[in-house]
Amino acid sequence: MKGASLGLIFGILLGAAGVRVVDRVHGAKLEEAGKAVGERDPRLRESEDAVGKLEKALADARAENAALAGRVSELEAKKSAPSPAETAVAVAAERKNPWKELGASLYKLRDKMKDGGDSPEAQQVMMELLGLIGKIAKENGVTIEEAMLSPDGFPMLMLSILDAAGVTPDAVQAQKIEEILAGGREAWKEYLGHRGDLSRLEQRRDLMLLDAKTAEAIRQSFSSGQEGTLKEIGLFDANINFGNNHHIGGSRESIVEGLKSGWASDLKLDDAQKSMLAPVVDDYMRGYDAMQEDWARRAQAGQKVTSRQRSAEEVDLMIRTQKRIGDTVRLDDKQAEALKNWATSYGYTYSEPGR
User: Fold this and answer.
1) Is 49 exposed, middle or buried (0-12, 13-18, 19+ CB in 10 A)?
2) What's the total number of domains in the chain?
3) Dihedral angle at the C-alpha atoms of 89, 94, 95, 99, nearest 10 degrees?
4) How far apart are CA 321 and CA 337, in angstroms?
5) 222 and 210, same domain (yes or no)
6) What is the Cα–Cα distance from 133 to 42, expressed in whole angstroms?
7) Is residue 181 part of a domain?
8) 195, 211, 233 — which closes off a domain?
9) Which of 71, 165, 215, 350 could serve as 154's disulfide partner, Cβ 3.0–4.6 Å?
10) Rounded Cα gap, residues 257 and 348, in angstroms
């Protein structure tokens, strides 16, 4: 379980403002009654000019009072309205965090979790955690991996652990986190809306982008002390596993054969179809070699290439390869479905000097 992101979809509790309604029906009836009295009693009627002047003066006064009331309201609002940061803290405090108890348990067992989580207490907590993830996956119609990587899960778990440790994000951090979560939720909705049109590899790429916009962005707002708290758990230290990875080592010839055999096995291809993979493997290896050389150049120039960036580029290459297979090899319906559901990213290392 080390390095896994945990997912959950659930909304922020919103308060509703009350609205006072003016009964205009009764107001109109009172006005009509007043006119009737004036018509019946001449002593209450003024000349048309006088009435016109009074009505204009009254209208002007009402307009001035309305404008003044508006200015007063604006000043009071500016004086009493909380700052965005204060609002973010209030929202965070009111939000129900379903990870609260699990986060507290994980923090309490942090020493045992860091040692591998093999104690009975740690195993119990992990079972509860996995049970919650499974429930969320079922409710949202997604896989366990998707549930783990949903924007409101992993960040909320991290925040619950920080709360348990007494290092809750301050007002400025809370404001930034709320902005990130809001954007992450919108991105998650978009992902759910079109995930059915994506291959598993494309889903994997989108989940990586989604996680970078949420969990990773939130972690960048944490202080060194807060990051240290997460490191005490040990659950977040490793790189996130976004899918299956298969690495091959050996000579170029053995790697070529390993890729062809691996892909043919994954997609249930026959020997004739496997032979058609040769040009696809050549293209893939040219792209993979170029990618490795680019990483080496960037590293030599002092440009850090993160494991996340490497994984993203590897998946992009696999997506291009996936589409090339679909265009090159004649597949039956089951094989085409297997290609869409293909979720393994391949890599290799040459064992021979200079290849």
Assistant:
1) exposed
2) 3
3) 100
4) 16
5) yes
6) 81
7) yes
8) 233
9) 215
10) 12
What is the residue-level pLDDT of the chain in tens, covering all 355 positions?
Answer: 333 333 222 222 222 222 222 233 333 333 343 344 344 444 334 444 544 544 454 455 556 555 655 655 565 555 555 555 554 455 455 557 778 888 898 888 887 766 666 778 888 888 888 887 787 788 878 887 787 778 777 888 889 999 999 999 999 999 999 999 999 999 999 999 999 999 999 999 999 888 888 988 999 999 999 999 988 887 665 555 566 889 999 999 999 999 999 999 999 999 999 999 999 999 999 999 999 999 999 999 999 888 888 888 999 999 999 999 999 999 999 999 999 999 999 999 998 755 5
Q: Amino acid identity of 287?
A: G
Q: Could you tell me the residue range of the domain that residue 68 belongs to?
A: 28-83
pTM reported for the whole predicted model: 0.68
Same domain, 269 and 305: yes
Q: Are residues 262 and 141 in the same domain?
A: no
Q: Which amino acid is at 305?
A: V
Q: Which amino acid type is present at position 249?
A: G
What's the CA gap between 90 and 174, in Å, rounded? 9
Taking the C-alpha atoms of residue 161 and residue 236, their distance in angstroms, rounded to an integer, is 12
